[in-house]
Amino acid sequence: MAEPPGPVLVVIPTYEERENLGRVVARLNAAVPTADILVVDDASPDGTGELAEEMAAEDPRVRVLHREGKNGLGAAYLAGFRHALSGEHQVVVEMDADGSHAPEDLPALLAALDDGPGADVVLGSRYVPGGQVVNWPVHRQWLSRGANLYARFALGVPIRDITAGYRVYRRQVLEELDLDSVISQGYCFQIDLAWRALQAGFRVREVPITFTEREIGSSKMDASVMGEAFVNVARWGLEHRTSWLRPRARV
Q: What is the pLDDT of residue 239?
């Protein structure tokens, strides 16, 4: 694998992931030994934050950011991004703590930043050739595929897995996007960031991954997250398609 363009920070949000976190971090350290890890814990009542602190005390690559409560996945990632931008990291990775995102796939995602034409954002995609989903019930698969088809149609983008939560950003992308204006949560957050990157002219590339349903714990997704995505994607798509109708200022 080609070396990534600068120090890498993997942001892992957690809420009640004590049983999963240790295994994910161990696999990540084996897959990309040079990467730093930031655990963003939302005051998990099961002691995930305390476990992360123990791991950080033993491994200088691991850092912990504690938040006061469960305030949403999007807000957790934004806190992690701001931490990354306050330091020297040039590449920032989103990764789930539940094992659904295989750390062993990360080298390929990092390599895609510079392979061929290169990319500014790399999405770990379930729905491009070579990608797959393991152990998901049929209704979850249809929900996910339907959400991606809806977003592709509404926004007019070629991305096949725009809801993907396993992704890599160059530092420049996060510096130039207006992160303070992002309020989306759940997989709407993922659509939002990819859409903003495309609108800003950044190169977005998909790389196939194997997504495996978590074995321990339960999904944090609920109906409110799905409703948010449905409404916001429709609004963004409408605004984009009607932008040419707006009066333009005279020069």
A: 78
